[in-house]
Amino acid sequence: MTELAIDQGHAIDQGQLREQVLGVPVHALGLAQAVNCVFDWALRRESRTVLLCNVHSVVTARRNRLHAEAMDSADLVAPDGAPVAWMLRRQGHADQPRISGPDLMWICCRRASELGTAMFLYGGSPGTLQRLELCIRTEFAGINIVGSYSPPRRPLSAEEDEAVVRMINQSGARIVWVGLGCPKQESWMQAHRRRINAVMLGVGAAFDFHAGDVKRAPQWMQKSGLEWLHRLFQDPRRLASRYLVTNSLFILALLQALLLPRRRLRDG
């Protein structure tokens, strides 16, 4: 068995492991436990949602009620983003790592290739999906990718959406990778809970990274919490305003959370 062994029946205790990160519920757990949860649910063919939470997701949840509801109702919210992992460590989870979407996807693909677990790819452009599937099949011999779908930019009609649900369920997929970006992918997964009989994981830019469309940051930047800076340098026109706004709002909310309790204590 590999290091990340599947522990049958090993599901997270949401009551014990969920912490509030600036009002957003995030699970405190390691990468191995996250992988175990995914495959425990997948082997039971349960309809579950797994979200990755970074600074952008926290700020979006604080400003968007629907996104907050999607985060709150998710079966697993993993800390993707160094500041989110840091806040969990500050709450007593000393060894809390960052669990990034690309890393989680890659390790799950390795496990799926060992077990023959059927996977489906949803999101991205047709070209990205083609390159992504080729990359995964090249890396993991015997990987069982049973289908993929690149949705149009416009909303699907009810009939089109029902056809997509039927296609995914009939494919036999146990894991559905969703690469639509935040907050669209979280909304899509919430809308399809109990309709798609698989574990749905929203991994955002992981499709672009593994397809080779976007170069990922060096390891030292990932470990230092600077992957966002690498992405900013690659696509400043699209990401500059996003990072400026979300990072500023996150820092402001963080300062309020850290300072206000102390002020209330002194005032009392």
From TrEMBL:
Protein name: Putative UDP-N-acetyl-D-mannosaminuronic acid transferase WecG
GO molecular function: hexosyltransferase activity
CDD domains assigned: Glyco_transf_WecG_TagA
Keywords: Glycosyltransferase, Membrane, Transferase, Transmembrane, Transmembrane helix
One Pfam family it belongs to: Glyco_tran_WecG
Signal sequence coordinates: none
Organism encoding this protein: Mesorhizobium delmotii
Transmembrane segments: 240-260
Originating gene: wecG
InterPro entries recorded: WecG_TagA_CpsF (IPR004629)
Class in the EC hierarchy, top level: transferase
E.C. numbers: 2.4.1.-
